[in-house]
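Input.
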Amino acid sequence: MATITIVGSGHMARGLATAMLRGNQPVQILGRDGARTRDLVESLGPGATGGITGAPVTGGIVILAIPHREVRNAILEAGDSLDGKVVVDISNPVDVSTFDRLTTEPGTSAAEETAHLLHGRADVVKAFNTTFPSTLEAGTVAGQHLDVFIAGDSEEAKEKVSAAVAHAGMRPIDVGPLRRARELEAFMIVIMGLQVSAEHTHFNWDTALRVFP
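Output.
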């Protein structure tokens, strides 16, 4: 299996790495905090390697497991090592002070902003923004597999991400071109709002979106 690079060392990085390793897909973790990155890699065990953000990217798929506000700097730090890669934007540009608006400009999405920053040097795919760390680690919710909604303008790039998702035991669902990321991101205002609502104490960031059948 080809290596998948994950930029970030937080909860989503752990969840994604766990899922990829479950499918026997080696991961490279690149994080700004050396100690935190090392601890994450060691806890993941065989198949995981690590380095500092800006180190050469070894994976053909690069997942940006970082907040929307950090994407620009991550791309600048990676430099030309992202050229020819498939870059996955997982971010939700939701204003977490209110959980009632997006921080992106109307008529665009975080994923489209990422594509603009890369100027065609890499194919950008939107995926994993509807999944949460604990569900990725567990692989299921209430006995059900996870659905991963995928948007992108390159069919080849979407196929590569879909294959990685399937190997990890999840179901990839192609929702269309990259502009569909606008709807995927906007819907998370509703989902994230439910997670933090005092009226829904049984939602603890361990829910999942699923299309039946």
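The chain has a mean pLDDT of 96.
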